[in-house]
Design a protein that fits this description.
about 400 residues; mainly alpha; Rossmann fold; 3-stranded parallel β-sheet; two-stranded parallel sheet; 20 helices; 7 strands
Amino acid sequence: MKNKFKMIYCKKCVIPNTRPNIEFDIHGICSACNSSKIKKKIKWSERQKLFLNILKKHKKLNKNNDYNCIVPVSGGKDSVYQLYQIKKKFRMKPLAITWRTLARTQQGEKNLTALKNIGVDHIDFTVNPEIINDITKKSFLKFGDSSYIDHLCIYNLIPNLAVKFKIPLIVWGENMFFEYGGYKKEANQRTQTSKLINNHHILKNYVAEKWLSKKISKKDISPFASPDEKKLRLIKYEPIYLGYYFPWDIKQNHKIAKKVGFRARESGPIMGLYRESDIDCMNIVIHHYFKWLKFGFNRVTDHASNEIRKGRLSRKKAIKLIDKFDGLKPPKEYIRSFCKQINITEIKFWEIANKFRNKKIWKKNGKKEWYIANWIAGDKKADRFKHVKLSKKEKIFFNN
């Protein structure tokens, strides 16, 4: 008889063992919490000297180029912080590059004005919407992921443009494996390689070329095709994590981003605990909700775990917040917009959602209501979470 799967939770934070790439030690502590311990032992001043040497090297290497680095920018608080640090504090000549999602919010558009206040050249890159919508629909049906194509595009577009403009230095934000939990080998990396990203659950190890068909040609996917590793080596490609050299803290990033015009959501978090997170794209909110269905946790768990590691929240308080908010559904307007984008009905949307509900962790009670077995906030609590509501101002944006 097969052993039944059981959700277990980190004894320090509230992350479950269903999180992709997460590891637990013999004491029941997750790899993200163990990384937070390692942070306290890191000699940050020595790493920062290494960082300054890297910048010095690329200033010299690109002295005849218009730019000496690329900073990927979504318009979120973290990438605005990255750009501010690189341009204002370290006096580099960055080219800011944004992958323009087709589901950008009004707030996301407004927050890109922060780039003007920093004073940089900026590319807001758009790929043929017909191609993007086609892959968005197919990947949603295949993976239950509304944001697969956005992630694929940003992670491939940047190295491809680095080759085109001959700019080898890329300054990414944090190493996801180190900050949020993952395999030890990947967590220790200072650079973001294609292999590392493809192996992360966010890209499903499903490369762009697998979408080629009679309708989609190599030319169609060229901006986000798999990077040519040989060409990257020729330009001495160096995609570093800023979070490897400086302690990464969402709250501190937000404080700096606010100085140059970044604004959080006025009516509270769209999903999770941070007003400043996930506000630039509608589809990312749906993407996070599907984590609730697939893995039994959502953004409140992510954010609460981060706050526990930073010493700003107790585990007891975190569990109360999870109980109250973690299963909230995306705004109805976001779901309607996504359905319109990929040309499916809302009934079809919820059929797909239920298809990807993980039956190893989700069970039904006598009333045929879904619940998470052994949920941290209480066993057999029915999933009766409602939709997040948009403000009047946000609704006006939709109506227009």
